[in-house]
Design a protein that fits this description.
The complex is a heterodimer of chains A (483) and B (305).
Chain A (H helix, E strand, L loop, with lengths): L17 H11 L4 H12 L2 H14 L7 H26 L7 H15 E2 L7 E2 L2 H20 L8 H20 L2 H4 L5 E2 L4 E3 L2 E3 L2 H23 L2 H11 L1 H6 L4 H27 L1 E2 L6 H14 L4 H18 L3 H19 L3 H25 L12 H7 L10 H20 L2 H21 L5 H19 L15
Antiparallel strand pairs in A: 1-2, 3-6, 4-5
Helix pairs in contact in A: 3-9, 4-9, 4-12, 4-13, 4-14, 5-6, 5-7, 5-12, 6-12, 10-12, 13-14, 13-20, 14-20, 16-19, 18-19
Chain B lengths: L1 H31 L6 H18 L10 H28 L8 H22 L4 E2 L2 H4 L6 E3 L2 E3 L1 H23 L1 H11 L1 H6 L4 H27 L1 E2 L3 H16 L4 H22 L4 H15 L14
Antiparallel strand pairs in B: 1-4, 2-3
Helix pairs in contact in B: 1-6, 1-9, 1-10, 1-11, 2-3, 2-4, 2-9, 2-10, 3-9, 6-7, 6-9, 7-9, 10-11, 10-12, 11-12
Classes of the chains: A mainly alpha (483), B mainly alpha (305).
């Protein structure tokens, strides 16, 4: 057994199996052969160079020629990433579940909209950005303090409820109160672009770069905060408020600070959003966006700045960019299925057996269905590209796929739940029909309803990530002290 | 004055509905200390099940079986299936997270709520499904007191709601299962040491709570006549409000809270404006939370060290 050369030799005698287990665990964290070397080299790069590289990559991305749609996806993804980084302060560091977070985003957007449009007074207010942005952000901080005040008395779950209601109340408020000023459901239109010192930002390229710069700067600032007294205090309060208080940390003030800081970042994202879109509507700030931000944060790993940003970017690019055309969605879906199998199924012969059995199962099922009734396979796969051609004789798609697809969806959920519960042997066997059924549901229902599929994906991301890897892709596992 | 009494009757009816949802929510919170955000969506699923039962038996206009039997099948099937769904969710999503940091099951619950809502959208579409209650239960068959009408659906909802609440109270206070539930709620580890099957108790709690949500869903379908995939979210919020106002984890509190929310909603809609109903109800919650965080009937919880 070759031990890992990266680990220093153990000092003193090796007692018991623990040390060996620890070494094995450490070794297994790396990929085999040169991939592992690359991984180690990557790990040696510090946080700041990585941020610089990521920022540079983001800045260079438009130079390879993005279409207008892709640029818009980039802008939306960066906005969500900014939101996730801000949410990370409240949820990841201070450990408070803030379900009204998106209202601060909306507050920023509406605040900017009121200060730079013809909405108030006859001629309107048209403040330049260097005035309106600070005003909105300071107001958001004050609002954050106001909403965070309950956290003085409401611990944990109660805070989640109050913030959830705050979020709902914001949507209701913008929908119903002062329609002449806030526009009601019709929102505010005709918002000025970002404007300062005689020039203004009108192109989407400009907003893309502005967002890249803002995201990098916010991440850098938050990195400094994370390493500061305040950052340590947040984490201490998250882990154990009582212990933190006995260490003379002012728990309430620290929590309020986290709330306000999160609100400021969200409001900043909101102002850019309003300026770029040139209009705001109450529905832009409703629960689905909140859940999207949470999905990004959870995927990347709550508690890690880079994780939050990266997770949000990945979620948003998949959500907004890839799940629109059936072809790309098909690549994503089948790629994800195969990758998951490759990553999770061991040993290799089990993987080979499952794949072979799935292929054989599909062709057999298709042949049987065709023999029974020609209309049962008349539909053909709905994914585009070569995937559809490859699957033509494999997956059953009836001529009228909606009802069987729906039943397939229900059956798939039941199968998935069963799959998690049963033992190893049955799991391998059941995997074959599950994969086939997943493909069936995908071809009959999911690919034709991309907008619903996107939402289902976000919900499933939250459930699966929380159960399988609660620390996220980049976060660190933490154990909560028992109380 | 008759307007006042009419609003009172309406408020009590919706209040009974909210109480039922809040009860299940409160029970789950009691044993698991988990805010089950998916609870409102279970209610939505129950409403859909009721609708499809009506369709299965020939539609609202000409049901192929007697109406009382149809109602019984609707309620029993909705309770059973939604209860099973709640149990499956607990087994699948919450049980692995029982000892995880507090925030993890909450985020999972949001994910499940969102997933259920969109799964219903995928399966049933976005259009409103209409119960057409008036075609098989005549609205005029109620009681007329002066100018106040109490129609038969309202009577049924209130009677069934009260019966279920009384039944639940008996179950929790006087049966072995109820004793086990209370033990698990008080201290899970100690209960486990005393030989209580904690997994079974929690699963049973989820079944009961979700079944109540399913029944409430059918009631809502009969009462409001329409079902869509988003009704769960708002109803869930109202039920949270009810549970929290009454004191979360307390069963009489959930009943009282539901009634208060129902009445508040009814009177605000009747006397002020329907646009501000939700805003005022949410505002009420925030005020209660600030003034009396443990709710009207809840006990203040001391933080254990």
């Amino acid at each position: 057994m070759s031990l890992d050369p990266q680990l220093p030799p153990a000092a003193g005698p090796q007692v018991g199996a623990d040390e060996w287990v620890a070494r094995q665990a450490h070794r297994r964290e790396y990929l085999p052969s040169w991939l592992g070397d690359a991984q180690r080299a990557g790990e040696r790069v510090g946080w700041w160079p990585r941020l610089a590289i990521a920022g540079l990559a983001g800045a260079l991305l438009p130079t390879i020629g993005l279409s207008g749609f892709q640029l818009q996806v980039g802008i939306d993804s960066l906005t969500i990433a900014l939101l996730a980084v801000g949410l990370n302060i409240v949820v990841g560091w201070a450990g408070m579940l803030d379900l009204g977070y998106i209202a601060f985003f909306g507050f920023g957007a509406y605040g900017f909209a009121l200060l730079s449009s013809a909405q108030i007074a006859s001629t309107g207010i048209h403040l330049p950005a260097y005035l309106s942005l600070p005003i909105v952000m300071v107001a958001a901080a004050i609002l954050g303090l106001g909403v965070g005040l309950p956290s003085r008395r409401l611990i944990g779950d109660y805070l989640a409820i109050v913030t959830l209601f705050f979020g709902e109340a914001f949507v209701e408020f913008t929908n119903n109160v002062a329609p002449s000023k806030l526009g009601g459901p019709n929102g505010i239109v005709g918002i000025d672009p970002i404007r300062a010192f005689g020039w203004q930002l009108t192109s989407n390229f400009g907003y893309y770069y502005l967002l890249v710069i803002i995201l990098v700067v916010v991440m850098a600032v938050l990195r400094l905060v994370e390493k500061s007294r305040t950052g340590r205090a947040w984490r201490a309060v998250r882990e154990d408020p009582l212990a933190a208080a006995s260490m003379t940390i002012p728990v309430n003030r620290v929590r309020l600070a986290a709330f306000a800081a999160g609100a400021v970042v969200a409001a900043l994202a909101g102002t850019i959003y309003a300026a770029q879109q040139a209009n705001v509507f109450p529905t832009d700030f409703d629960t689905p966006i909140l859940i999207l931000v949470y999905a990004g944060l959870v995927l990347g790993g709550a508690g890690s700045i880079a994780g939050a940003a990266l997770g949000a970017l990945v979620v948003m690019i998949i959500y907004d960019g890839l799940l629109r055309s059936p072809t790309e969605a098909g690549y994503l879906f089948y790629g994800l299925v195969v990758l998951t199998l490759l990553a999770r199924l061991r040993p290799w012969r089990r993987l080979a057996a499952v794949l072979a059995a799935t292929v054989a199962f599909g062709f057999a099922a298709h042949a049987i269905a065709k023999a029974i009734s020609a209309s049962a396979v008349a539909g053909g796969p709905q994914s585009g590209g070569w995937i559809a051609d490859a699957l033509r004789d494999w997956v059953i798609v009836p001529a009228n796929p909606q009802t069987p697809g729906n039943w397939g969806f229900v059956a798939l959920i039941c199968l998935l739940i069963t799959l998690v519960q049963v033992g190893n042997r049955w799991r391998t066997i059941l995997l074959v029909p599950t994969i086939y059924l997943a493909s069936f549901v995908w071809e009959t229902r999911l690919v034709v309803e991309p907008s619903i599929t996107r939402q289902l994906m976000i919900g499933a991301t939250l459930i699966v990530m929380m159960n399988a890897r609660p620390q996220g892709l980049l976060g660190q596992r933490r154990v909560e002290a028992l109380t | 004055m008759s307007f006042f009494f009419q609003e009172l009757v309406n408020g009590i009816t919706t209040g009974a509905l909210y109480s039922l949802i809040a009860l299940g929510f409160s029970m789950v919170y009691g044993v698991l200390k988990l805010l089950n955000f998916a609870h409102g969506d279970l209610y939505m699923v129950g409403a859909y099940i009721g609708f499809f039962v009506i369709q299965f038996f020939g539609g609202a206009a000409h049901p192929s079986i007697p109406v009382p039997l149809l109602l019984v099948i609707m309620f029993v099937l909705a309770a059973g299936l939604v209860g099973g769904l709640g149990m499956a969710i607990e087994r699948f999503a919450y049980r692995p997270l029982r000892d995880a940091p507090r925030i993890a099951p909450l985020i999972t619950a949001i994910g499940i709520s969102f997933f259920l809502e969109n799964a219903a959208l995928l399966l049933f579409g976005a259009q409103y499904r209409i119960y057409n209650t008036s075609e098989f239960i005549s609205f005029s068959s109620g009681i007329q007191i002066g100018s106040v009408t109490i129609d038969s659906v309202q009577i049924m909802v209130v009677v069934l709601g009260v019966a279920l609440m009384v039944g639940l109270r008996v179950l929790v206070n006087q049966t072995m299962l109820g004793k086990q539930m209370r033990a698990v709620a008080a201290d899970r580890e100690a209960a486990e040491m005393l030989g209580i099957n904690v997994n079974f108790t929690i699963a049973a709690t989820f079944f009961l709570g979700s079944a109540l949500a399913g029944v409430a869903g059918v009631m809502a379908g009969l009462l409001f006549n329409q079902v869509t995939n988003t009704i769960g979210f708002i109803a869930g919020l109202k039920a949270f409000t009810a549970a929290v106002v009454g004191g979360i984890g307390s069963i009489p509190g959930a009943m009282l809270g539901g009634l208060l929310i129902g009445l508040a909603e009814s009177f605000v809609t009747g006397y002020i404006s329907s646009t501000f109903t939700n805003l005022i109800v949410f505002g009420l919650l925030i005020v209660v939370m600030l003034v009396r965080p443990s709710g009207l009937l809840g006990r203040a919880q001391l933080q254990k060290v």
